[in-house]
Known about the structure:
74 residues, alpha+beta, two-stranded antiparallel sheet, globular
Amino acid sequence: MSHHYENLSPAETAxxxxxxxxxxxxxxxxxxxxxxxxxxxxxxxxxPAHLIxxxxxxxxxxxxxxxxxxxxxx
Length: 74
């Protein structure tokens, strides 16, 4: 994980990662319908794990994401 997140609390780290995800997605033309942190962290590996909600996506967004993922593999 990036040093950018090094001195942040788990909640702050999750929020920064969520913002980075949204920014990266928008840069390739993908808009998540409701990008947000899940309000209830879950237990994971001995520490709270924050989940990022991306919302339910429509077919157009699914196609866009598929194209980006496939292009990244090349």
